[in-house]
Amino acid sequence: MRTRARAAAAGAASAAFGAGLGELAGALVGASPIAAVGGALIDLAPPWGKDLAIALFGTGDKAALVTAVAIALLLIGAGAGLLARRSMGAAQALVVVLGLVGAVAAVSRADAAALAVVAPAVGAGATLLALSLLAPRAVTAPSADDAAGTSRRTFLLWTAGAAATGALAAVGGWALQTGARAATAVRAAITLPRATTTVSVPAGADLGIPQLAPVITPTSDFYRIDTALAVPQIDPATWHLRIHGKVDTEVEIGWDELLALPLEESVTTLTCVSNEVGGDLIGTARWLGYPIRHLLSRAGVQADADMVLSTSIDGFTAGTPLEALTDERNAILAVGMNGEPLPIAHGFPVRMVVPGLYGYVSATKWVTDLEVTRFADAQGYWTPRGWSERGPIKLASRIDVPRRGDTVAAGDTVIAGVAWQQHVGVRGVQVQIDGGDWQDATLATAISPDTWVQWSLPWRATAGPHTIVARAIGTDGQPQTPTVAPPAPDGATGWPRVSVSVT
Ligand SMILES: Nc1nc2c(c(=O)[nH]1)N[C@H]1C(S)=C(S)[C@@H](COP(=O)(O)O)O[C@H]1N2
Ligand SMILES: [Mo]
């Protein structure tokens, strides 16, 4: 029993040692093997994978997935340790297979570094080395006499040492990767050019009601959704965008050329198709960028094209209807967000922003390639995973004040929220309290049809439980549909509802 535990510990420590050194090597060559395996798992996930990923990992970083991959590695390592008692060869074969899985994942990443295979090789090699030193000691350490005390201590010391070295190397590697990496430093040094056209936000656009989402979302509060386990770190000096496919002439543009073009400011609300009714996967920013239609007309789009497949440096793709990129709307290659270069997690140095379409079919971050093509010939990332080929944003509203479950003091108060249908606009919002008559809320001044609009309604709250329901009214005069639909395949519907108790 004791030797089994020791064998498992030796194997797990060997795996920790190897994985840690592999991560450190990965940081140096720019390709973390654990992130590669996690990324491959995200891509291989079944169609319901996006729901699951969002449920599991939320909108923040993907620490949970990295932790899961690391735990799996330790468990397999423990297995290799146990196996080594019977057959060292079998244990070594298991480690080699693990290294191969890491190598295949690493080189098959779309943004694979040239030396991507080095890190899993280092990881597997270091694991084999540690295993060859620790595993025999786990089995032979006697346990009764004096010498045994010394040898047990030596075994424990070596095992703990290997595990600790691995952990340190991994932490060092991740710090190298996410910390002082070039992109962060370069981004901090950038001064964006002034916009040739600016947007002034009307004074009445923000009602300034506490707890109501501000009309411009602070960048730090802006939702984040992507499949990138390790956020791509792009040095703008090396960034290029290629426009090709059904065009007369291919166009290639670099960072300096892009910044030299007349950049325009626009305010656009981005929405994720995964946003539930009442959810917060939506935000509005002041973007700085260059209209994509100018670059497309430079390339000369051929008559039979109807879609642009945009690709990010890490292989995400979005299929955007051509007309959304060639009509007059502010469909841009964005370089600035709320007065600063794009944050790295929001697509630095260049992303797409297209008013009126959910992010998964339009808002490609870290974009490097635009292929002019046809819906019949190409698909974006989420389409084969069960999401609709087209993603126009649906008419929707949200109640921000009061919040679900709030306790409200009786007396004069206010109900407020936001409503949106980007690029179409919102004509009004109505509110229903406890199943009574629909009352017209007051709309704030909209910045444009491309942004959400705040709304409010005075409320004389009486003691007791109350239910508040809202619905937006479309520009055609039709109210938002009450039919409840989940986010998949093309966006949630239904009225937002909040229950509060007034005292
Ligand atoms: N490269 C890349 N771009 C991407 C995605 C992605 O997974 N990878 N996700 C898209 C989705 S689903 C949304 S909703 C928006 C979110 O943009 P944000 O994270 O800046 O809010 O980015 C889009 N662009
Ligand atoms: Mo999304």
Automatic annotation (TrEMBL):
Primary enzyme class: oxidoreductase
Protein keywords: Membrane, Oxidoreductase, Transmembrane, Transmembrane helix
Gene Ontology molecular function, alphabetical: heme binding; molybdopterin cofactor binding; sulfite oxidase activity
Limits of the Oxidoreductase molybdopterin-binding domain: 229-382
Signal peptide stretch: none
One Gene Ontology biological process: sulfur compound metabolic process
Disordered: annotated span: 476-503
InterPro entries on file: Ig_E-set (IPR014756), OxRdtase_Mopterin-bd_dom (IPR000572), OxRdtase_Mopterin-bd_sf (IPR036374)
Pfam families assigned: Oxidored_molyb
PANTHER family: SULFITE OXIDASE, MITOCHONDRIAL (PTHR19372:SF7), SULFITE REDUCTASE (PTHR19372)
Name this protein carries in UniProt: Sulfoxide reductase catalytic subunit YedY
